[in-house]
Amino acid sequence: MDENGKTVSKNFDVIKNSISSRLLGQSNTQLHTINMLENHSFDADDDLSGWIITKGNESIVKTEHGGVYGEKYLLIDKTAGETVSVYQSVARPRKGNSQLKGFIKYQGNDSVVAADNIKIEVRVEYKLLEEVQNPSASSSGSSSTITNKEVKFEKFCVPTMSFVGESDWIPFSIDNISIPT
Question: Which ranges of the chain have pLDDT less than 50?
Fold first, then answer.
């Protein structure tokens, strides 16, 4: 497997004296994506390792058994009037396009979930070096110098669906996550 998670399987003829005589076949390149989130399925021994949680005193955030693909899922029982945030910073994000996929199940305690009560978003922050032309005056006339300046970018990516009412497990995705190469 290379640093991008790609593998290729090769089958060779009989090897004699550590030398193969002929390539019999080769698989297509297989991409094994590496999940950038730590403890993405909440299955770690310390259930919430890697995640930062902010909440009020009455709201509950914990793991439960019975997730879709993993053994566990994250349960958020938010008390009215409180805000709950669960997030993590990705230390080494991949450059290019990425996607966040998951499953969500939701229901209200006394009524259905209202619009904008559940928000899922990805905040993308990155820095780029940009060339900046700086005009300068000299005794021989006008000239300019080019310097590099670090520019910080920030954008928010959200799913195209909204979470209203009640729902059993449904998939969601955020497809427009992009970091320039």
Answer: none
